[in-house]
Amino acid sequence: MTQYIPVTMCHDCGLLQQISHMPEDGAVQCCRCDATLRKRQRVEPAKSIEHTLALVITALVLLIISNVYPIIQVETEGHEIAATLFGCVKYLLSNEMEFLAGLIFLTTIGAPLIQLTGLLYILLPVNFNRMPPYYAPQIYHLVRIITSWSMLEVLMLGILVSVVKLSAMATVVPSIALWTLALLMIFIAAILSDLDTEMLWEKISPRIRAVELEKLKRGTQLTNCHNCHLLCTISPTHESCCPRCNAAIHFRKPDSLNRCTALVIAASVLYIPANLLPVMVVTSFGKTEGDTIINGVIYLATSGDLPLAIILFIASIFVPTIKLIILSLLLTTVHFKSEWRPRERTYLYRLTEFIGRWSMVDIFVDTLMAALIQIQGLMVIEVGVGAVAFGAVVVLTMLAAMAFDPRLIWDNMEKINE
Ligand SMILES: [Zn+2]
Ligand SMILES: [Zn+2]
After folding, report:
1. Which of 31, 175, 384, 413 has the lowest CB atom count within 10 Å?
2. Are 275 and 292 spatial neighbours (Cβ–Cβ below 8 Å)?
3. Considering the domain 42-249 in this protein, what is its CATH number?
4. CATH number at 253-418
5. Looking at the CA of 30, which ligand is closest?
6. pLDDT in tens, 326-341
7. CB half-sphere exposure, 345, CA atoms < 13 A
8. Is the overall model pTM greater than 0.70, yes or no?
9. Domain ranges of the chain
């Protein structure tokens, strides 16, 4: 049975609040910053584990098929080339682009594989009421971290854009892995929304409960564990560990401002070569031409593919730029202890977390096009060095958003109100 936690601390603004009742449908939101505190699961609590386990097993089968078969096949001038996910990674490795190869491997194969096998390892014994397996809290921690790096929905958008772009120069035939990847994307979304994480933590560590407020002395500092969200007491003098998952607990993310500032500066520096250097190099009939991100968007807009141009403009130019601007704004306002619109700034923070991954679309498109158009003497597409810089900008801005602690926005407000 799902246990509702009556008292919880908002993960976005740090306000301690009581949940008096769970609404029949929908979610409980923080009264100060509108963050979702608890959500009613779609699946009955008694069936949640069994239901998620079935989804995980199906998703694993889909993941295997998606990696064995090609995604799309291209036929042109009597040549036939098929692209698999592994094929794209291998192509990048053979072109000495290890960073991009690693990034594509992590976001499309590695992260979903770790996520699904990790969940299978924990859910299988739990479903049959066996003892939770060895290192279950650590493995579940890893599953939760790796989930941010699984980008199948972005890959699907990248494949669709590539299909439209490729169909202008060759016959494109969708292959079996395209359909299994689409299904896999839906199954992973269902697993994330249906798994009752609070109940799973209770099964993994059944004897550990959140601190009881009535028994606390006045002035005791409380915080939620970053990993499992258990409400714990924290010692101001020495390092504390979460009693449930053993993760180190901190009142605020350690060194948040410094880490986030360093990552934003590094991303801003790389943003320049990412936009000036070509992300794709096309050799056609002996003539070599490099395409930067903006060139690619302008070309699509002028050749009549306006919707595609808009998608790529939003994903590759608008999203990284707005993300760097928002993160700089958040860092500056927190540094100067600004009281300006904390709720709206928290919304902006959530926006950066949500949109960051979509910039990967361009990387997926460039890699797929390059892996598929390799017709020696006629047309060869290669991934340009700008794509490496662009990939680094995406990773650094994602890490910067993860390093930023949104509760810092509200800390100044609390000091003012005291
Ligand atoms: Zn809040
Ligand atoms: Zn914990």
Report:
1. 31
2. yes
3. 1.20.140
4. 1.20.140
5. 1
6. 999 999 999 999 888 9
7. 23
8. yes
9. 1-40, 42-249, 253-418
